[in-house]
Each structure stands twice: as C-alpha cells, then as structure tokens.
Amino acid sequence: MAETEVRKIIHVDMDAFYASVEQRDDPALRGQPVAVGGRQRGVVMAASYEARKFGVRSAMPSVTAKRLCPELIFVKPRFDVYKEVSRQIREIFLDYTPLVEPLSLDEAYLDVTTNLKGMPLASEIAREIRARILERTGLTASAGISYNKFLAKLASDHRKPDGQTVIPPEKGPAFVEGLPVGRFHGVGPKTAEKMNRLGIHTGADLKAQPLEFLEQYFGRSGTYYYAIARGHDERRVVPNRPRKSVGSETTFMEDLDRPAAVEEGVASVLGDVWAYCERTGILGRTVTVKIKYADFRIVTRSRTLEESVDSREVLERTARELVRTIFPLEKKVRLLGVSLHNLHQREERRVPPQMTLAL
Questions:
Q1: Among the options 22, 107, 263, 316, which is catalytic?
Q2: Is 106 annotated as a binding residue?
Q3: What average pLDDT does this structure show over 30-57?
Q4: Residue ranges of the domains in the chain?
Q5: 162 has binding-site annotation
Q6: pTM of the model
Q7: Which residues are CB-contacts of 79 (< 8 A; sequence separation ≥ 6)?
Q8: Would you say residue 248 has pLDDT above 70?
Q9: Check: CATH 1.10.10.10 for 172-228?
Q10: Quick one: what percent of the chain has pLDDT higher than 90?
Q11: Which residues of this UniProt protein bind Mg(2+) (predicted)?
C-alpha cells in the first residue's frame, strides 16, 4: 500500500547524559571537565562538554584522556541513577506517542505523525518535550525533527547541546549532500575510511555513485547507502525493540598474566550477567567471551549451546572453556567480558516458534 502521508519523526538525544547527571548531583563538578569511567585503567564512558573541548571523548582510553586534559575528573558510573532518569524521560515521551523506540538510556526515536496531544507541529512537540525533561530532571536534551529516522538522528546532533533542528522533506537531500560520510549513522570509522579511499568524502560524493558500485564494495549495505545519500529511509519507529544480548565486562587494575587469574576474572565478570538473567527471567543460548590484551587487541570466543543456559554453573563452565582456548597466553590481559545472545524469556524455552503478523 502506498504511503502518502509524510511521517514526523523526532530523535531525542540527551546532552552528555552520564556526565551531566554527575554534574547535576554534585555541584563541585559543574563547569569542570568530567569523565565517567576508567580512572587509571579502562576507558571513558562519557565526557562532559568541558572535557570535550580538550578532545576527550567516549571510548577513549583513560590514560589518553588524562594526557589530553590533566585536570580531568574521573567519576565512577552509577547505572542505577542513569536508569531511573531514563525511566522518567521515557514517561514523558509516552505522553505524546506510544511509538517510542529507545536506542539506549539517553536517546530514542518518536513517531509523532499522529500524536496523543493532537499537536500539528513536530517541532513544537520536541520543544515541549525538551522543556519537560529539563523541568523534571534538570538535564538538557537536543532533538532532531524530520521525515525519517536517518535525517532526524543527523539533525539532533546539529545544534548540540540544548538545541533542535528541523529538516523538512524539501531540504533533506541537500542537507545530506553537504555532510562528510563519517557523520552518517550507519557508517562507522572503518567504512568511512574505505569510502574515503574510494573517493567518497561527502554525501554528494556518495550520491554520485551508482547502486551497482556501492553493492560491489559494500555488499547489502550498499543499498542502504544509496538510499540515505538521497535522503531516503523507510525504517519505521519500532517500540519495545527486543534486547539482543546481555553482557558485562571489567578492566582490571593490573594486567592478568596467569591462566588461573584469567579464569578467575571470567568467573567474577559473569556474576552481573547471571544476576540480570535471574531478575528478568531472560535466558540465552550463545555465550561469548571477550578478551582485550594489554596492547588493546581484542579477540572473542563464542559457543551456541543446544539448550539454553539455565544456571550460573552452566554459564561459568562454558565461559571458562571458551577462555581456555587462548591459553597459553600470548600477552597479558587487561579486560574480560562475558555476554549472552539468542535471548528469550524463561517460560518460552520449549515453545515452538510461531509466525506472527503485525497489524
């Protein structure tokens, strides 16, 4: 069935969320360069805007961040607080539309084409939502408003922090053409580098490539790149997206250099994973162990079991067997992670899959 109505999509993105929560709750941190995460070891999970001025960013090794900003203040993350604030924000979203698709604790898509308030302008809805978030949580949010998800996400980053941008249908293609491909959601650093090697630096360069060329070099993703270069994105806002995995990882204060210590490290990490399974009734069939060596090289080992992992003992046994495949150790180990995939609710374990039709 042809779709004639232009959709109204909002992407709401909290500004430096984890760091902003810490600055909100501790007045001494306000106006200071703050990093949530790693201290001497590990990585930065979030950086305040004061820290970003020095080049500090998320996923950066903490030693690098400290070198860039000697005055950087490291704060231990408080996920229980972040989750509660995220819940408060989600309640505000649901006052306007049931079509809310969370991407993480601090960002979500909203389809307000038909909204619960009967408001005609998506830009006014976004402005009202941002004001309510500030009033309830004391935190600022940025928003992007457009006719599809791709452009809405691009727009939300355009006037950060505490701003919003509208990209109407008649301006979508031109907006895309002027941006570097590295800014596109769905184009990661490695893909951007590959595009640059092929002479594709901007949206205009991408748009100039025929579909056959993009499919040749990027496979099935080539079709997506061909579409977004023209401002097209038919993906719908999908509420209650099922969780694909649950995991936990730890960076150790000292690198592990003995197999026994690595096995003990794996056992200590998986406690959070199994606690989540017990709390939610979620089970999984695929166990993955992540190993980061002292030189930051990462390897993973996975195994899919015939039956679901239904006890901590099974999870620990499988994880230990997987990590033993890297013995003898090539290098010292700085980080270990354990995750579960192929998730389902405990009571669904032996129920055969059924075809469903969304109406």
A1: 107
A2: yes
A3: 90
A4: 1-167, 172-228, 245-348
A5: no
A6: 0.75
A7: none
A8: yes
A9: no
A10: 81
A11: 13, 106
